[in-house]
Automatic annotation (TrEMBL):
GO molecular function: histone deacetylase activity, hydrolytic mechanism; metal ion binding; nucleic acid binding
Record-annotated membrane-spanning stretches: none
Listed GO CC annotations: chromosome; cytoplasm; nucleus
Main localisation: nucleus
Source organism: Suillus fuscotomentosus
PROSITE patterns, per the entry: R3H
Keywords, ordered alphabetically: Chromatin regulator, Chromosome, Cytoplasm, Hydrolase, Metal-binding, Nucleus, Repressor, Transcription, Transcription regulation
EC number: 3.5.1.98
Subcellular location: Chromosome; Cytoplasm; Nucleus
Cofactor (UniProt): a divalent metal cation
Name by which UniProt lists this protein: Histone deacetylase 8
Length: 421
């Protein structure tokens, strides 16, 4: 990927890399149209709606005059087989890339997770290579100093496993990007092994990403730290022991694979309360690269109806992303994820795009009159406000999380200190 994205020099304030192509939008849109009959919520036309609203607000327009360019639209290329094999098994790729939706072996399809919420569909090969390629293109722009911030809203497929599709996710683009970014940077002297922090804000636990880098029993510092903030409850997808609050006394404990499970109704107040934990983890780990999976199924109004998070206000999704982008050290990449209220997904990712570019739109802003205008009724504004759901995250539960993380942060800090000779 490095050789295809050339670095530029002389930029003091690099524009945000916005990963976009018509092919990517088409394949993302057609993908979800083809699985609309599946039993889990689909994302029909979401990609198209997001990009059209971003364009309607004129966020990607080239700036003129004295004002610096805020965004650089970067066209992704499809990922090659070698890049996909950096994580996925050859058997999985050969099967999923060479089967048609009407001529699959059901037994083999089941073995690779290609059933239920992840059925085969026409164009799956293009979908896998384009989505993976888009996320890797974003990673290359920040690794090669083209940008300090990259955005790829079609990425964030955090349930795809090494040899199985799962939870609407067919390709592990998050894992591939982490593996790419953790590679030694040859231009540094002495050679540097970058640290990569993966922060997942989706309603659902980042099971595949967390499992990919989970190293129980290790006593050394790791290059990758994963932190997932999500809902966890009996029977709630995905089921994983790593989704629970970590236990430092558990033999499987790894201070670089972290979770903050939240109860139903999590609101701005909830995220404001736990955010110091996120900041402390970041400060101890000191990442060179930060990947943020910005799933939206925790926002109020989503069909999942589990959290009551909003787009604006202290502790909101917008507040969190603003802090990460403008206050944290390191280079950042924002990815998409869940989100099944299509209009709210377009609102949220458009707003986060403006935040990343340093030109935040007003949440009271009217939706521009364009072809998709009627999709945003009845408010016809950008905001995604909180609803009336009760927040079940109690003071007692917050204290339990904080007490647990006191021990976790202590272990993490000790791992980051080089041993004395």
């Amino acid at each position: 990927m490095d050789s295809r994205v050339e670095s530029t020099t002389g930029l003091h304030a690099r524009p945000v890399a916005y990963i976009f192509s018509e092919d990517l939008v088409k394949v993302s849109t057609s993908t979800y149209e083809s699985i609309i009959s599946s039993r889990l919520p689909s994302n029909r036309n979401r990609s198209l709606l997001v990009y059209s609203l971003v364009h309607a607000y004129g966020l990607l327009a080239t700036c003129t005059g004295q004002e610096s360019q805020r965004f650089l639209v970067v066209r992704p290329r499809p990922a090659g087989q070698k890049e996909l094999l950096a994580y996925h098994t050859r058997d999985y790729l050969e099967y999923v890339m060479n089967q048609s939706s009407d001529a699959q072996n059901l037994l083999e399809a089941s073995e690779f997770g290609l059933e239920d919420d992840c059925p085969m569909f026409h164009g799956i090969k293009d979908y896998i290579t384009l989505v993976a390629g888009a996320t890797l293109t974003g990673a290359a722009t920040i690794r090669n100093n083209i940008s300090d911030i990259a955005i790829c809203w079609d990425g964030g497929r955090h349930h795809a496993k090494k040899a199985r599709a799962s939870g609407f996710c067919y390709v592990a683009d998050c894992v591939l990007a982490i593996l790419f970014l953790k590679r030694t940077i040859p231009s540094t002297h002495p050679l540097k092994k970058p640290r990569v922090m993966y922060l997942d804000l989706d309603l659902h636990f980042s099971d595949a990403v967390s499992q990919a880098f989970h190293k129980p029993g290790s006593t050394t510092a790791a290059q990758v730290l994963t932190l997932s903030i999500h809902h966890a409850a009996p029977g709630f997808f995905p089921l994983s022991p790593l989704a629970s609050l970590p236990d430092v006394d558990d033999p499987a404990f790894d201070p670089f694979t972290l979770s903050v499970p939240l109860k139903a109704g999590a609101s701005n107040k909830t995220f404001l309360r736990i955010w110091p934990i996120v900041e402390h983890v970041k400060d101890i780990f000191r990442p060179d690269f930060i990947i943020v999976q910005c799933g939206l199924d925790g926002l109020a109004g989503d069909p999942m109806a589990t959290f009551n998070w909003s787009l604006g206000g202290e502790g909101s999704l917008g507040w969190c992303i603003h802090r990460i982008i403008h206050e944290w050290q390191g280079k950042k990449m924002l990815l998409g994820g869940g989100g099944y209220n299509m209009s709210n997904a377009a609102r949220a990712w458009t707003y986060l795009t403006s935040v990343a570019g340093g030109i935040p739109l007003s949440l009271d802003a009217d939706i521009p009159e364009y072809s998709g205008y009627l999709r945003f009724k009845p408010s016809f504004t950008l905001d995604v406000p909180a609803g009336n759901m009760q927040d079940q995250n109690t003071e007692e539960y917050f204290q339990a999380i904080e007490a647990t993380y006191e021990g976790i942060l202590s272990v993490l800090d000790s791992r980051m200190v080089p041993p004395t000779l």
